[in-house]
């Protein structure tokens, strides 16, 4: 962990793993550390990284034990035990440290590091084994191996086994606390997250693993998941035609793009399972050596944004079968939250934390980290980066303090009263756990005690955690809307509360036509009057729901409009500034210009508008032609400071004739200089009328934004006229009303300048009963015909706020079933889906109902064996895998939900329908397979598995990728890659589809390929002794290509660059004479050259290297545009040809070509945006993404409104790029308007500026 990452920065540690200081220190221990007390002990350990090969660590261990350390986390580094392949094992250093730890009365913790400093180029691993980043870079030092390369995984696992066998005696003596295996350069388990980015030539974040092994494994994984391309393309919204075409997602230099879209989620899941598989392999190896070993995972983090790159967000699943988890938090991380998270989801397992000695963080930060971890239930804290003589003193006193404080008592059981939760899909999509951290912080601040933090790993198939239903916390108030007028009501988020999670959102039913729910806001225009009961249902993060209702009364008149503030001007020069809404404040740059107010209907058509504005500036006007403006089309004024009221009326016909469509009053404030004049508060949200019941407690807080202050802040709220029994405290109204009646309540807001404003609303107190409501979730039910069924509706499904539920009645039950209150029971006699209605009635006979389904299924039929299983043969000591065919079993009335496989020989296990492993027993075995349906009925079948004595398979050398070129004969004989081809008769067969045009004849492949692509190949070699080997390689079929290479000519030959079509080459980068050579992937005998431009030349070359000019001759480059054509022949047959154009220029600050008109499009130009702008003489406009070439007219106008002459020959459209020569049209500097008319009549107007 030599580098610490936070969401904001990267901090490189002072105690760097790669380079360790060579200082030494001899210290004699003054005392022995005390072993942890019995029960559930705490550990305070020191990490010994062993990046040096000497005894310098021993005195530090003695000194640490004297200070109070009671355990040592010893790195068992692969490269220290085996310095190179074939070298003898060297256990001397680690054995001395283990012996000293026991002598010091300290526990040993083994951290086995399978990354190596020689992982890089030409190092321990073959090139194809090394992980590759999304950008194509390999990690280098400590890069490790691809988890998908099974040979590498087995080799690393073999080293793990060797270490555990070596320390088995100490384990059996009780000297080892636990072990872990790590693989990254940060000394953690997971995928690497950083490396050297060759594109930007610096160290940075990276996402792994895009190696050949990983990509192939991903293709196999998605094929196994989706079964066919139709399912995959539907899920991914893709159009793949072959599984072999699939590549993991990645956008260059965007590490987070690896999780974009559905394919990104699958790429995350695939890597999660790859990581889990290797962890489970290490665990199985550990337990096979000695089951008493305890195994923990050692992760950088499992909740920060970088955990998306590590693939550790799903830590619960990754910690299956482990004995605990340690996190290596940065000092800035929320240690209390982290400890709560691990403790809550891994109950009874070891919870560890690590502090890092990086960047002189300081003792106080370390102290807080340790205290917070232990206070929230951690079992263990490790000191990292303190194992050298120069850095240990920084933590020595703190070790004494923390050992005295925490190590004399066992870990106490944490009792929590608060719970928050989140899902794995939430963490992946949101880039970490910041949302649940916020919810955790809210709960923690209430009690300052540990909080239960539950993770639901929904992406991994986890479906439930113990969930408490959400509740209605505050009843919703009735609302009033006006027909055809814009209505908006924000549902208070405090109306609902979830005791163990959070509310994810709400839905609304019963809304009148024209209104809809957006987020927590109901808005729109109701088109008819009426009374509506609106049901609001809130859903928590586990899918549980609760509902409440309010009444919405829709009454008659007016409709709203869209009101916009514009900078005044004609259609070319006016500019949109902002929308204006009720209570808005206009200030600053918005009003420091001549302004106009334009209005348009939100929907439908309007014939005319009338306007009446009063305030510091008053005006009345009308407009019958769009755009409808307060000051007409082109007029405007400078608005003065003050309060304005704008009345807007719309009519069906022009000239204010026909029916009145709407009438709208809009109030807004203009602030020019808020220091000279105090403006009063402005009413922003009109309080809704309230309702309450006598004798029932009532509490409601008016919106904080009921009033807003345009130039200061609100000092106080005063509420008067409340019903008896209620009082106002700021915006809070509370109490128990005692008198029924209708009251007018006055609300006054006063600002910091002493100005005030008021509003009123009605408060109705009634003695009438409030009906019950639905407060829980009722799932759909299922039963089987002719079998007894019983279900009781839970008591928390219905609630009554002012009384009690007196009865529950269920309607719609099928024949044979009856309801008795909340109990549904009986023996259903009819198959079908039945809609049931549960009606709850309160003690005053008001009721509410809830609809749910009961599905009665026919009598279950057991599964059938559809196809017999074939007998199988395996070799002892060799990897074996057999997948039961999907069509083995059939269930006619349900589905096969699980399989049970028994009778397997030692070394083989079954998971799902896959049998795999390495058998260790020989003989014949009867394997029994049971298939269970969704009703637990089953059928069984069997097959014979013969395990033979192992025969060594044929040995082979790795086969490189093979290149084939279309139109060119291909030949390859795989036999040459087998080592025993001369001593044993080999039979070769191919188990994969060959590229079109290529055929197999025994071991030989030949033909003329006809389709470009990468073709994975699998060859099976069987020798005369029965041994078999599968060999994988690729055939890459390419079209014949010609690469144009620019070389220095003469004695100083050498490549200058490759030339592509449309390239622009600076003359200053070229030598005095140059030559052009052709490179190709095809078999070519002759090249014909033809070059025109400033230099003209024709010629041919009949031998490689194929040069435009013979020998060391060449041409002197001149400025201009060149046309270059080459034709390649094989004998007399044309193989391929290529024509390009390139330019040689004289480069200065701005590229200029002498005598050549130059247009250089911006690489990612914005549509309809001129460039360069300002310009000198020439302008370009990207008018479409691609393929657009139809403009009807191009015009240039002065800002005064005069059209300027633009000859048709001075503009053209090439592809999607408009190019203009304005040297004659705009001879003088200034601002001009460029107006473009498309074929469909649409116009675009853009401003361009000519430079002086």
UniProtKB/TrEMBL annotation:
Molecular function GO labels: beta-galactosidase activity; calcium ion binding
Protein name in UniProt: T9SS type A sorting domain-containing protein
Domain Dystroglycan-type cadherin-like: residue ranges: 471-561, 682-772, 773-863, 864-953
GO biological process: carbohydrate metabolic process
Signal sequence bounds: 1-29
SUPFAM superfamilies per the UniProt record, alphabetical: (Trans)glycosidases, Cadherin-like
InterPro entries documented for this protein: Cadg, Cadherin-like_sf, GH, Glyco_hydro_42, Glyco_hydro_42_N, Ig-like_fold, Secre_tail
């Amino acid at each position: 962990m030599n580098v610490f990452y936070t969401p904001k920065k990267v901090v490189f540690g002072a105690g760097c793993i790669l380079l360790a200081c060579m200082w030494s220190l001899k210290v004699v221990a003054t005392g022995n550390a005390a072993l942890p007390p019995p029960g559930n002990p705490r550990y305070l350990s020191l990490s010994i990284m062993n990046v040096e090969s000497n005894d310098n660590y021993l005195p530090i261990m003695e000194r640490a034990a004297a200070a109070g350390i009671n355990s040592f986390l010893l790195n068992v580094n692969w490269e220290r035990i085996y310095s190179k392949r074939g070298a003898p094992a060297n256990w001397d250093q680690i054995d001395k440290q283990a012996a000293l730890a026991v002598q010091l009365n300290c526990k040993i913790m083994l951290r086995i590091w399978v990354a190596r400093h020689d992982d890089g180029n030409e190092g321990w691993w073959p090139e194809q084994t090394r992980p590759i980043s999304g950008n194509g870079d390999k990690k280098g030092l400590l890069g490790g191996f691809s988890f998908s390369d099974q040979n590498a995984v087995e080799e690393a696992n073999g080293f793990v086994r060797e270490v555990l066998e070596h320390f088995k005696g100490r384990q059996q003596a009780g000297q080892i606390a636990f072990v872990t295996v790590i693989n990254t350069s940060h000394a953690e388990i997971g995928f690497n997250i950083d490396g050297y980015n060759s594109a930007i030539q610096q160290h940075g974040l990276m996402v792994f693993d895009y190696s050949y092994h990983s990509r192939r494994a991903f293709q196999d994984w998605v094929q196994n998941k989706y079964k066919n391309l139709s399912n995959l393309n539907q899920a991914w919204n893709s159009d793949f035609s072959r599984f072999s075409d699939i590549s993991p997602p990645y956008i260059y230099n965007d590490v987070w793009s690896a999780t974009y879209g559905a394919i990104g989620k699958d790429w995350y899941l695939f890597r999660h399972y790859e990581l889990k598989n290797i962890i489970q392999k290490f665990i199985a190896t550990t337990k096979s050596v000695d089951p008493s070993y305890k195994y923990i995972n050692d992760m950088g983090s499992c909740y920060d944004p970088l955990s998306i790159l590590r693939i550790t967000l799903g830590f619960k699943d990754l910690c299956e079968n482990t004995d605990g988890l340690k996190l290596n938090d940065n000092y800035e991380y929320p240690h209390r939250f982290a400890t709560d998270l691990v403790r809550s989801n891994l109950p009874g397992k070891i919870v560890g934390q690590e502090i890092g000695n990086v960047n002189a963080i300081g003792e106080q930060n370390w102290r807080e980290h340790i205290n917070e971890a232990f206070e929230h239930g951690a079992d263990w804290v490790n000191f990292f980066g303190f194992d050298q003589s120069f850095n240990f003193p920084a933590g020595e006193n703190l070790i004494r303090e923390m050992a005295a404080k925490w190590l004399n008592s066992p870990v106490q059981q944490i009792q929590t009263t608060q719970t928050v939760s989140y899902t794995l899909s939430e963490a992946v999509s949101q880039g970490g756990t910041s949302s649940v951290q916020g919810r955790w912080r809210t709960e923690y601040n209430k009690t300052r005690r540990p909080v239960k933090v539950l993770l639901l790993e929904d992406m991994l198939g986890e479906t439930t955690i113990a969930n408490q239903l959400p509740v209605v916390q505050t009843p919703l108030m009735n609302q009033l809307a006006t027909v055809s007028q814009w209505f908006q009501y924000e549902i208070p988020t405090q109306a609902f509360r979830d005791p163990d999670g959070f509310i994810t959102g709400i839905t609304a039913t019963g809304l009148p036509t024209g209104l809809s729910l957006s987020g927590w806001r109901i808005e729109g225009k109701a088109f008819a009057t009426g009374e509506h009961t609106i049901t609001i249902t809130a859903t928590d993060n586990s899918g549980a729901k609760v509902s409440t209702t309010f009444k919405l009364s829709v009454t008659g008149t007016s409709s709203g409009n869209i009101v916009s503030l514009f900078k005044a001007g004609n259609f070319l020069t006016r500019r949109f500034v902002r929308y204006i809404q009720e209570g808005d404040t206009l200030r600053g740059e918005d009003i420091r210009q001549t302004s106009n107010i334009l209005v348009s209907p939100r929907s439908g058509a309007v014939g005319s508008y009338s306007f009446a504005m009063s305030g510091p500036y008053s005006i009345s006007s009308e407009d019958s032609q769009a755009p409808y403006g307060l000051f007409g089309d082109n007029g405007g004024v400078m608005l003065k400071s003050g309060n304005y009221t704008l009345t807007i009326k719309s009519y069906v016909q022009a000239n204010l004739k026909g029916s009145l469509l709407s009438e709208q009053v809009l109030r807004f404030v203009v602030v020019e200089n808020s220091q000279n004049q105090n403006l009063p508060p402005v009413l922003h949200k009109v309080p809704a009328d309230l309702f309450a019941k006598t004798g029932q407690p009532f509490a409601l807080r008016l919106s904080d934004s009921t009033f807003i202050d345009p130039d200061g802040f609100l000092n106080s709220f005063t509420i008067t006229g409340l019903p008896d029994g209620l009082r106002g405290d700021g915006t809070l109204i509370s109490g128990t009303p005692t008198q029924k009646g209708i009251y007018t309540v006055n609300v006054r807001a006063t600002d910091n300048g002493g100005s005030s404003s008021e509003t009123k609303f009605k408060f109705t107190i009634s003695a009438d009963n409030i009906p019950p409501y639905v407060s829980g979730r009722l799932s759909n039910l299922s039963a089987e015909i002719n079998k007894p069924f019983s279900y009781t509706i839970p008591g928390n499904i219905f609630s009554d706020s002012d009384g009690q539920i007196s009865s529950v009645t269920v309607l719609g039950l099928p024949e044979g079933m009856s309801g008795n209150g909340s109990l549904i029971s009986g023996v259903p006699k009819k198959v079908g889906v039945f809609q049931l209605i549960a009606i709850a009635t309160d003690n005053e006979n008001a009721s509410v109902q809830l609809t749910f389904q009961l599905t009665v299924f026919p009598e279950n039929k057991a599964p059938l064996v559809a196809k017999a299983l074939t007998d199988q043969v395996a070799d002892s000591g060799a990897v074996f895998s057999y997948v039961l065919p999907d069509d083995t079993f059939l269930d006619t009335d349900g589905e096969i939900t699980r399989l049970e496989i028994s009778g397997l020989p030692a070394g083989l296990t079954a998971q799902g329908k896959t049998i795999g492993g390495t058998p260790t027993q020989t003989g014949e075995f009867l394997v029994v397979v049971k298939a269970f349906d969704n009703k637990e009925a089953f059928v069984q079948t069997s097959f014979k598995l013969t395990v033979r004595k192992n025969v060594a398979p044929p040995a082979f050398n790795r086969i490189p990728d093979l290149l084939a070129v279309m139109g060119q004969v291909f030949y390859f004989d795989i036999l040459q890659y087998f080592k025993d081809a001369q001593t044993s008769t080999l039979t070769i067969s191919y188990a994969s589809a060959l590229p079109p045009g290529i055929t197999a004849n025994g071991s030989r492949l030949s033909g003329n390929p006809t389709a470009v692509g990468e073709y994975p190949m699998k060859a099976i070699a069987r020798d005369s002794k029965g041994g078999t080997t599968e060999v994988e390689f690729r055939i890459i079929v390419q079209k014949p290509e010609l690469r144009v290479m620019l070389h220095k000519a003469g004695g100083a030959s050498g490549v200058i660059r490759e030339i592509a079509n449309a390239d622009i080459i600076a003359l200053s980068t070229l030598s005095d004479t140059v030559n052009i050579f052709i490179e190709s992937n095809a078999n070519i005998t002759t090249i014909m050259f033809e070059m025109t431009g400033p230099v003209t030349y024709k010629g041919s070359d009949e031998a490689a290297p194929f040069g435009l000019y013979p020998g060391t001759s060449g041409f002197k480059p001149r400025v201009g545009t060149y046309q270059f054509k080459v034709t390649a022949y094989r004998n007399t047959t044309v193989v391929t040809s290529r024509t390009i154009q390139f330019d040689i220029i004289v480069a200065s600050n701005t590229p200029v070509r002498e005598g050549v008109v130059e247009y250089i499009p911006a690489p990612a130009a914005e549509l309809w945006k001129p460039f360069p702008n300002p310009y000198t003489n020439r302008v370009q406009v990207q008018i479409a993404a691609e393929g657009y070439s139809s403009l009807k007219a191009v015009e240039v106008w002065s800002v005064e409104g005069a059209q300027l002459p633009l000859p048709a020959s001075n503009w053209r459209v090439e592809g999607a790029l408009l190019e203009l020569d304005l040297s004659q049209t705009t001879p003088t500097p200034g601002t001009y308007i460029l107006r473009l008319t498309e074929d469909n009549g649409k116009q675009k107007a853009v401003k361009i500026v000519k430079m002086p």
